[in-house]
Amino acid sequence: MRLTVIGTGYVGLVTGACLADTGNEVVGVDKNPDKISTLNRGECPIYEPGLTELLQANMKSGRLRFSMDLAEGVRHGDVIFIAVGTPARDDGSSDMTAVRGVADEIADHTDRPKIVVLKSTVPVGTGDEIEERINRRAKHRVCVVNNPEFLKEGTGVEDFFKPDRVVIGAEDPHAASVIRELHEPFVRNQRPIYIMHRKAAEMSKYAANSYLAARISFINQIANICDSLGIDVNEVRLGMGSDRRIGFQFLYPGAGYGGSCFPKDVQSLVHTARRAGVQADLLDSVHQVNERQREILFRKIVSRFGGSLNDHCFAIWGVSFKPKTDDIREAPAVTTINKLLEAGATVRAHDPIALPNLRKLLGDRVTYHESGYEALDGADALVIVTEWNEFRSPTFEEIHRRLRQPVIFDGRNLYSLETMRNLNFEYYSIGRPAVIPARH
Ligand SMILES: NC(=O)c1ccc[n+]([C@@H]2O[C@H](COP(=O)([O-])OP(=O)(O)OC[C@H]3O[C@@H](n4cnc5c(N)ncnc54)[C@H](O)[C@@H]3O)[C@@H](O)[C@H]2O)c1
Questions:
Q1: What are the pLDDT digits (tens) for 271-322?
Q2: Confidence check: pLDDT of 440 > 80
Q3: 20 to 30 Å CA-CA from 14: which of 66, 83, 187, 391?
Q4: Centre of ligand 1 from the C-alpha of residue 10, in Å
Q5: What is the 6 CA–ligand 1 centroid distance (Å)?
Q6: Which residues contact 203 (CB under 8 A, 6 or more apart)?
Q7: In the prediction, which pLDDT does 420 show?
Q8: Helix 281-293 / helix 198-229 crossing angle, nearest 10 deg
Q9: Which residue's CA is minimally distant from atom 15 of ligand 1?
Q10: Which residues pair with 198 in a beta bridge?
C-alpha cells in the first residue's frame, strides 16, 4: 500500500521504516531540511537502536524515501500518518498547531478519498475536530483514525515490530479494517488489535502514560518517606513488587520521569479533565510530585556542600532522559545541571550518546566528555542521573582516583550500599540511607 508519514521524528521514522519493511511504499515528509538531507544521505538523525539499518535497507529497496514536499507526500499516500509533535503549552494543554497545519495541507492537496491516521498523541476529541476541519475544505472525503503509538524510545523498533497491543480508534468500519490490515504483520505472535471508538483510543494513550507516570511518582514518594525514616526503599520495593497484583515495572525510585511524553501527557490529561469539569487531583499530584523529584539530586548536593556552590565542580553521568536514547527533552539531568549552574558550580557532562543534544541546549556553559572517567577529573562529586548500562560496573578505583573527594550522588540506585561502604565512598542515593565513611 502507498503510505505517507508526516513528521520524521522518533515516532514517524520508526513507523515509516517498519511499515516499509512489511512491503508498503512509504514517503516520509518533514519540514526540517537538515533532517531530510541527513535521511537522504542514508543516515539516521536520531539515535534509536536498529533504526539506521532498517532505514538503509528499505531505502535501498526503493520502498522508503524522504521529502520536504508535503503536497507531493499528501498525493502519494492512500493512508497518511500524522506523527508531528504535540508539545505542552504553559497551561498544560497540548499545542496542536502542527497537527492542524498538517490537516489543512492534507485538505488542500488531497486528490482522492484517503484515510488520515493520527499517530501523534492528541487530546480527546481531536479526531472529530480534524476530520471535520479537513472535510470542510477538501474536495474528497477523508476519514480520520486514531492509532496511538506505544513505542518506547530506546526500543522503538522492537516495540513497533512486537507491540503488546495495537489500538485503532475509528468510527468508520472500512477505515478500521484498512489500518488493521497494515498492522496484521506485527501481531503474528497473537497480540491483540483492539478496534474501538476514536475517543476511547485517544483516551487510552493518555490513561496508559498517566498510569505509568503515577507508578513512578508513587515509588518516588515512598522513597522520600523511606529516606527520612532511615529505611532502604529497595527492600520495600521487594516486599511490595513481588505481589503479582503490583509487579516491579515502573517502580524504580529516581530523579523523576522526563522525556517528551510523560510530563506533557499527564498535564494534558489534567487540562482535559478540568475543561470537562472533572477534578483530576490524583493526576495533578503525579505531576507535582515529579516536579519536586526532579530537584532531589540538587537538594542532596546542597545539603552536603552548602547553598553556594561557587568553586565546586560536579561530574554528571547520563544526560538523556533515559538510557539508550539521545533524547534530552525534559530530562532530569538537564534540571540538575541548570540548578547546579545557577548555584555557581561548574559541570562536566558525560553521556554515551546524548552529548551533541546537550551541547545544542547549553553551549559552552558546561564541558563535554566522551569518557566518563575523564569527566571526573577534579570534580567534587560524581552525580549519576541516567542508568546507562556502562555505569553499572565501573572501575571504582578509577573513580576514587580522579575525583577530588570520593563522593557519589546516585539518582538511579545503581550500587549496593555495602559495596559503597567497602570501597570507602561517601554515597547518597534515592530512598536509601546515606553511606558516610568513618572519617566524616
Ligand atoms: N517519542 C516517543 O517516544 C513517543 C511515543 C509515543 C507517542 N509519541 C507522540 O508522537 C508525536 C511525535 O513525537 P516525536 O517524539 O516523534 O516528536 P519529534 O519531535 O521527534 O518529531 C516530530 C517531527 O515532526 C516534524 N514536524 C513538525 N511540524 C511539521 C509539519 N508541519 N510538517 C512536517 N513535519 C513537521 C518535526 O520537524 C519533527 O521532525 C507526539 O505527539 C508524541 O507525544 C511520542
A1: 999 999 999 999 999 999 999 999 999 999 999 998 889 999 999 999 999 9
A2: no
A3: 391
A4: 7
A5: 9
A6: 124
A7: 98
A8: 50
A9: 10
A10: none
